[in-house]
Specification:
binds S-adenosyl-L-homocysteine, 10-stranded mixed β-sheet, alpha/beta
């Protein structure tokens, strides 16, 4: 089957349209049209009519429908999209001078992290590269003019490294030549630690990696993230060390969700710093975002600050990601629209 338009690399698009100039015009349309229509128009400026209509036949947009939209008072916007039978969520997060788009890589998720709302949905299906890039195009069209969507994080629903081929293709479309032309340093793929595919990603992509570590001992991590039994902490950090030793020049984002009385002690903080001591790592501390039916709770803010101080004083860069979009259940780990109608009006 032919690929949908948003999943074509620039080389493939050039091939299909017979010239770079037309391919550039098509990309400009795709990432410059506000709002993005559900169906491709009959004509696009700068592309010969017969070329465009042939492309439109073979490579339409992926089937999509808006399925809900909610805006938090802090500006974070959660967009639900129906993609065939599946519904996924994409989050637009405006910041100073730029916006970040958080995309989903699967409908549901293949992993079973005990703290994540998406896991409660089970796995529905893989998203195609075209559906991943489509999420970016739709969200980008909603970004405020003075805060263009220049960053993409693969931190929505799903485990990107259980769908790596499509994720790599999407990264390629986002960062390749022509619009949207994002920098590799502005695209971050986040994993719960699927080791073989994490290694493949590090070896083949120049995009950034975030590892959701979330614990400092295997015993603790296994309880939270069952696949840690297969790929324990030392093996994951070992792969990062190897990548660093190979001269990749990368820094690694390490996500650490904090739960009260689970992984938030001074000892945890010291162990975390020790684990990362010889790595160019940036820790992002994320106080847990609660959701219905889940017993975990975030620590008090003072505990989060104390934890950060210990990690920081041990010489490891460490930022706190205070939740955004919590009012609309768009914060990390809260994407689970399908089962619950999750706050859409
Ligand atoms: N599967 C990938 C990407 C999706 S999760 C991964 O695990 O990295 C994106 C981030 O949200 C991860 O760092 C995850 O640990 C975090 N997260 C999941 N559930 C959360 C919750 N309830 N509260 C706060 N962060 C959560």
């Amino acid at each position: 089957m032919d690929r949908a338009l948003t999943g074509l690399t620039f080389a493939e698009l050039t091939d299909a349209l017979g010239s770079r100039t037309r391919a550039l015009a098509a990309r400009k349309w795709l990432f410059g049209t506000r709002p993005l229509p559900q169906v491709l128009p009959a004509r696009v400026e700068g592309v010969a009519a017969e070329r465009w209509s042939a492309l439109r036949e073979r490579s339409p947009l992926p089937a999509w429908e808006p399925a809900g939209r909610r805006e938090d008072p802090d500006g974070t916007t959660k967009i639900a999209l129906r993609l065939g039978q599946a519904t996924v969520e994409t989050v637009l997060i405006p910041a100073d001078g730029r916006s970040t788009v958080c995309v989903s890589s699967q409908a549901g998720c293949t992993r079973h992290c005990r703290f994540c709302a998406t896991a409660t949905l089970g796995f529905q299906r893989q998203l195609t590269a075209a559906e991943i890039v489509l999420q970016y195009a739709i969200a980008r069209a909603e970004a405020p003019d003075d805060r263009p969507a220049r960053n993409v994080v693969f931190m929505g629903m799903g485990e990107p490294f259980d769908n790596l081929d499509e994720v790599l293709r999407a990264v390629n479309v986002l960062t390749g030549e022509a619009a949207p032309g994002l920098g590799h340093q502005h695209v971050t793929v986040s994993t719960s630690g699927v080791l073989p595919e994490m290694k493949r990603f590090l070896a083949t992509s120049r995009a950034q990696l975030a590892l959701s570590l979330n614990a400092t001992t295997d015993e603790q991590r296994e309880r939270l993230m069952p696949h840690n039994r297969t790929w324990p902490i030392a093996s994951l950090l070992g792969a990062l060390r190897e990548d660093a030793a190979g001269g990749s020049g990368r820094r690694y984002f390490v996500e650490y969700v904090l739960w009260r009385d689970v992984n938030d002690t001074d000892e945890d903080a010291r162990r975390l710093a020790a684990l990362l001591a010889d790595l160019p790592a940036h820790v992002n501390l994320i106080p847990h975002n609660a959701f219905e039916g889940n017993p975990l709770v975030p620590p008090a803010p003072e505990r989060v600050l104390a934890f950060q101080k210990i990690v920081h004083d041990a010489g490891v860069r460490c930022l706190i990601r205070w939740p955004r979009g919590r009012d609309i259940a768009a914060a990390c780990g809260q994407l689970a629209l399908v089962s619950s109608n999750n706050g859409y009006s």
